Amino acid sequence: MKSFQFKSLLLLAALIISLPSFGQGLKAFKLKNGLSVYIWEDNTKSDVFGIVGVRTGSVNDPQEYTGLAHYLEHVMFKGTDKIGALDWAAEEPIYQQIIAKYDEMAGEADPAKKEAISKEINELTVEAGKLSMPTEFSNLMESIGGKNVNAGTSFDLTYYHNSFPAYQINKWLEISSQRFMHPVFRSFQSELENVYEEYNMYQDNPSSVKSNFIRSKAFEGHPYSRDIIGLPEHLKNPRLSKLIEFYDNWYTPENMVLILVGNVNAQQISGRINAAFGRLPKKATPARKTYPDLDIKGRTQYTAKIGYYPSVVLVYKGVPAGHADEKPLEIAMSLLSNGSHTGTLDKLTLDGELTDGGASSQNFREQGRNIVEVIPLYDENQRRFESNKSAEKKALKAIEKIANGEFEDWQINAIKTNMCRDFDLQMESNRYKGMVLMDAFMNEEDLGKVLNYKEEVMAITNEDVKRVAKEYLNNNYLALYVEKGKLDKGSKIQKPGYKPIEPPVGKQSLYATQFKTMPFGHVDEKFIDFSDVKIKSLNDRSKMYYTQNPENNVFSLTLRYGVGEREFPKLGIAADLMNSAGIMGTYEPQQLKEELSKLNAACQVWASDDYLYIMMRGYEETLPQACQLLSRQILMPKLDEKQLSRIKGSLMGTRQQRKDNVNTLANALSQYIRYQDKSSYIDELTDKQLYELQISELTGDINRASNYEAEIFYCGTMPFDNAYDILSKNLPLVANERPSSSPQDKPMAAVSENTIYFLPNSDAEQAQIFLYLPMDKYDKQDDVLRDAFDQYFSGSFNGLMINEIREKRSMAYYAGAYIMTPSLPGNQTYLYGHLGTQNDKVNDAMDVFMGLLTDMPKNPERIDNIKSYLRQEALSSHPDFRDKAQYLKIFERMGYKGDPAQENLPKIDALTFDDIVKFYEQHIKGKKYSIGIIGNPKSIDTEKLGKYGKVVKLNERKIFNTKDTLF
């Protein structure tokens, strides 16, 4: 096919190229200033997903000022000389003083003098804060129904994104371009503290620490080896002038892309795009620094004691994104491990030789690596893991088979078909389409090549795969050993105590006033149409729910039996075993995986408290055969003893280390304050029960569960009657099914007095605070009031929680409190809050948090935004076609007859701020609550916590099951 080159704006109407059917709506052009524009039209969607991407990330951070790209992403939300500017003429001189003071502080070596300058900066920041509204950008995005307004920084890319109603396209283009016109990096000092919070949060996350270790070795000598957030010594000594310089250098139109995907018409909005984004001044982008690739010769081992369990990571040379070998290498790595579990590493796991194993390629813009990771087998009898050395030997044998070309043609064909199937599924999403286009821009790939992904994949030959496997999976690799050990806590960034920023209340900029009066498109009150969901009974109680797939020939099938772990506590383990089970007398586990893979079908089994789920995806051509295999497996499962030992060992290993895992302790504490002894960490199989599990009882649980009534959710292209005929004849459904009592809601803990549960942990770099406040029983009549309160109290950056705790005082990276609703009407609702803060800020953060809870501030000027957001969110949040039937079930269960928006829009229109206040006063204010806090007792004054309730000190034994424990 012809190369998909950029066209000028004037030639947009003539942009006709040979594209796959799903790509016919794609348009691409460049503005005169060099900014790229990709528009993917899809009028079946209810909203638009928008991205502004910049081809820069941490890879472009100066070596002596790492973290700039990420810092910049944070402060790009603080407005411009127009957005958020109440009096720019008065604010600008203060802003210039702040810039100069940061330069002065960075050049000062004396700690006392640096601290003094920091205090001066704080005074200037507070003064400037009285002249601006740093949250105005977020406020205006809320006013146009912008959802999930956020941004991200990677090594090679920074992007700003959100979804919005189609009729707000003009306003979205205006503010999304205006944010790049003379940005003002307000509240830089407080945002630095938020980044400190984020950095310290990652220090409690073993996965983050492990990833940093792997990259530091895998990409040694390249910026990819550094953490995106930056080095601690640079975070402590920032220069605002360097941030401005970074923006000026890299945020150039020729280095930026605008992406719009969804219900948008390129022809209609191209002129508006040019008017909005065309005003960004054209300028050149600096030359990029180049780095030599790491020369890996022979075997080189590195060891780090940073894990809760051992693992081995083998690192091989790879290729950068867009390289000709990228896709053949992806297939080669899939021969080691894949979603169908037919790889050589998968076989080791299925055979009980490893606890787990996986393989993947990391393809960045400039370099790439092939990564293999394995976890040694946990010996349940000796209660320890096997050695990393033994795990490496097993992995190397599995890799050697692929490198030597020891695989069959059907495996390659199955992997290629699965890659195409997954691509089709992902392309159903606005967000995924947008990310695909953004990656293409970042890597400077031809769009035609991206769209022809499936054709390229299917054209790859077995010889291509053998060639790359032999070339890259050789004897030159890094062996990274992760051993059990405590995380290094020496790099914590201490937070200084600064005065909070107090912007004026009820003020807005001239820009905001003008923005709100801008015209917008026709508002089409289009509700979710559930008439295309077809329902028909199967047997006595079971039902089939059908929706048509209008986009591709990939079917999705969810079989949901009406019983779960509540009735059968071992069902979760039995379901896990089903993912590696065979069929009695016919197929061993690996053989069954191969048969399903040949049919291009993927199957997954899991259980919840309420249901046993079986999900299958594939192509309809093989639907009958895939269902027959599934039915035989459910009715005659061959569960494997080795797999049971592996699962028991994995669970035992997890339990053995969970008292050392700060995040696990925090999750257990969160459940404890809500459920007490019904917490899933307490109400679980004991170690003794787990140790004594037998195949026979687990097989019995699967058989018993499959005797319950079922719901079948099917989405495909074949007519309903054909699908019904195939599924009714080939699925494991019994006559006279047992009735289901699912779903149910777990009983919530009663709260008779305000209580603070404190779990001391000296390893926690960041304290975590949880709130549980029981409320009234659920009634759908209060849905609008609940949503309005949530938006007012915790809605994005405009909510009280984020605004008061993070934006003004920089006490937390995340903070929120939302009303949680049950599965069934008439059951209890509750307010659930969570925030993370530094240990030495817990008491201050609690003061602010409890002040918001017990005496909610009143900002009536927010009501118009809240109503606008709720109305637009109700009209634009439509489920995708695959999920439509399950959404219908949920809505009906909660008392609605169709789209809740039909019933709720009049309530939104009639909503007043007094309604929100009244709801708060009736349902939240003065109610009893429980609070859980995990943190370092050396930095937290527990006596002061007593003013908020009775303080109860917990230990790990209280929040975990202690009956018949083996550890």
Characterise the protein shown here.
- Helix content is 40%, strand content 19%.
- With 967 residues, the protein is of the alpha+beta class.
- Helix 5 packs parallel to helix 10 (266-277).
- Mean pLDDT is 92; it is low at 1-21.
Summarize the structure.
With 967 residues, the chain is an alpha+beta fold.
Low-pLDDT stretches are 1-21
Strand content: 15-25%
> Biggest sheet, strands in spatial order?
1-2-3-7-4-6-5
Q: Helix count?
A: 36
Write down how many β-strands occur, each being a DSSP E stretch of 2 or more residues: 28
Query: What shape does the CA trace take?
Result: globular
State the main characteristics.
967 residues; alpha+beta; 7-stranded mixed sheet; 36 helices; 28 strands; 40% helix; 19% strand; globular; disordered N terminus
Write the layout of secondary structure elements.
Blueprint: E1 7-8, E2 26-30, E3 36-41, E4 47-54, H1 68-75, H2 88-106, H3 111-129, H4 136-143, E5 147-153, E6 158-165, H5 169-178, H6 188-203, H7 206-218, H8 232-235, H9 240-250, E7 256-262, H10 266-277, E8 299-307, E9 311-317, H11 326-334, H12 344-350, E10 354-363, E11 368-376, E12 378-379, E13 384-385, H13 388-403, H14 409-426, H15 430-442, H16 447-451, H17 453-459, H18 462-472, E14 477-484, H19 510-516, E15 534-538, E16 542-548, E17 554-561, H20 571-578, E18 582-583, H21 589-598, E19 602-607, E20 612-619, H22 623-635, E21 637-638, H23 641-657, H24 662-675, H25 687-691, H26 695-705, E22 710-716, H27 720-730, E23 755-760, E24 766-777, H28 783-794, H29 800-807, E25 815-820, E26 828-838, H30 842-854, H31 863-876, H32 884-893, H33 900-910, H34 913-923, E27 930-935, H35 942-945, E28 950-953, H36 956-959
Parallel strand pairs: 1-2, 3-7, 8-14, 16-22, 23-27, 23-28
Antiparallel strand pairs: 2-3, 4-6, 4-7, 5-6, 9-11, 9-14, 10-11, 12-13, 15-16, 17-20, 17-22, 18-21, 19-20, 24-26, 24-27, 25-26
